[in-house]
Amino acid sequence: MSVAAEEPLHAIQVFSPDEIQTILRNLDKPFGTAIALMLFAGLRSEEVMGLRWGDISQKEQVITVRRVVTRAAKGEYAPIERTKNGKVRYVPYGDELAVHLKQAQKTSIYVVPAVRGGYMTPGSFRRQYETFFADLPVRKLSPHKLRHTYATYLIRGGAELRAVQSILGYQSVGVTEIYTHVNVEDQRRAAGKLAY
Asked: Are 31 and 128 in contact (CB under 8 A)?
């Protein structure tokens, strides 16, 4: 008997392992630090725009997410001392990001500054993101898909859902469960090994 697998209601797009390797080989390009922060720490684009060097403990390898760049009064964008869920969160990171951050230029208080050294706006962020990916032989996925990629591969690597929930700053573990979809193929392969 053959039963068609149901498609998840909200299929999550993530970069493949080959695409990730291509991206990693190009992190020395302009805007590579922003890409590294999303791919190795799962930060949202507005969190990357608001991230200052003082928010990073390179000794402890922890990023403190405490501000975002968002629309403020009169439609202008500005950094505000508030995160999406209103809580400061601490994001540990590994040696790959540590090496990249040590080598990154520190020309501003912002880790990923605008051309003139201040905070970056969403329009500028989007343009630089698109420029980074323009000549790479990978799919042109949105910046948020780097966050999805980070979460998906954390879970695929065996990370606990609650830990991933905390790192990503989600209030509910239910939101984090959307990243478990990738294990369906692994589960299907495992089920195919049934010996009777």
From this structure: yes
